[in-house]
Amino acid sequence: MPSAEQTSWVILAGGQASRMGGNDKGLVELTGKAMIEHVIGTLSPQTSSITINANRNQERYAQYGSVFGDNIQDYPGPLGGIHAAIHHLDDEWIGFVPCDCPQLPHDLVERMANACSEDTDIAVAHDGDHIQPVVTLLHRRILPKLEAFLANGDRKIILLYRQCNMITVDFSDQPNAFVNLNTPEELQQFGQTL
């Protein structure tokens, strides 16, 4: 099982954000700060290893940390960022969070790491009702399965997870931690409740 210190974390900001009017979600402002700043603010006390996967505005993201893009063209979604991260980072255990979840759990890293055993391939957060497939901690040994999956043209993240030894990590005590903001309307409503 990995310790929290043995994990490296990646903020996935590589999508097209079509529902956000094409605006780069991680850079959209929420209460006066770019959304990614809210994510970094929660992750920073939990881990010293944070990188950013982004395919647009890389120079802007670089002010927040080390940035890398997808290796696969045509926006394959979160799996493209996961694939790129396994190639970009040397760590055995790599965690992922989306850039549009501004109130992630403050014990995310520790809880995810503690849930894993030696044979765990992927740990996925569960909010009590649904799994949160982009909030995940995985072992780099999934790379051959991931590459075969992508080469086959598959993109649905949960289908890959079902091919691996997946566990879920219970965050039902913090169900609102995984609110993600996809549209300008959601952003405005959420900003008013903070």
Short key terms for the protein model shown above:
194 residues, alpha/beta, 7-stranded mixed sheet, 9 strands, 22% strand
SSE topology sketch:
Blueprint: E1 7-13, E2 29-30, E3 33-34, H1 35-43, E4 50-54, H2 58-61, E5 67-68, H3 78-88, E6 93-98, H4 108-115, E7 122-126, E8 131-139, H5 143-151, H6 157-161, E9 166-170, H7 184-193
Parallel strand pairs: 1-4, 1-6, 4-5, 7-9
Antiparallel strand pairs: 2-3, 6-8, 7-8
Helix pairs in contact: 3-5
Q: Tell me the structural class.
A: alpha/beta
Mean pLDDT equals: 89
Order of helices and strands: EEEHEHEHEHEEHHEH
Q: Largest sheet, described in full?
A: 7 strands, mixed
Major beta sheet, strand line-up: 5-4-1-6-8-7-9
Task: State the low-pLDDT regions, or none.
Answer: none
Shape: globular
> Count of DSSP E strands?
9
Q: How large a portion of the residues is in β-strands, by DSSP E?
A: 15-25%
Helix content: 25-40%
Structure in a nutshell:
The protein has 194 residues and is of the alpha/beta class. Helices cover 29% and strands 22% of the residues.
Description:
Helix 3 (78-88) packs across helix 5. A hairpin with a 2-residue loop joins strand 2 and strand 3 (33-34). The protein has seven helices and nine strands. The protein is 29% helix and 22% strand. The strands form two sheets. The chain has a seven-stranded mixed β-sheet, sandwiched between helices. It has a two-stranded antiparallel sheet with strand order 2-3. It has helices spanning 35-43, 58-61, 78-88, 108-115, 143-151, 157-161, 184-193, and strands at residues 7-13, 29-30, 33-34, 50-54, 67-68, 93-98, 122-126, 131-139, 166-170. With 194 residues, the protein is of the alpha/beta class. It starts with 6 loop residues before the first strand and ends with a helix.
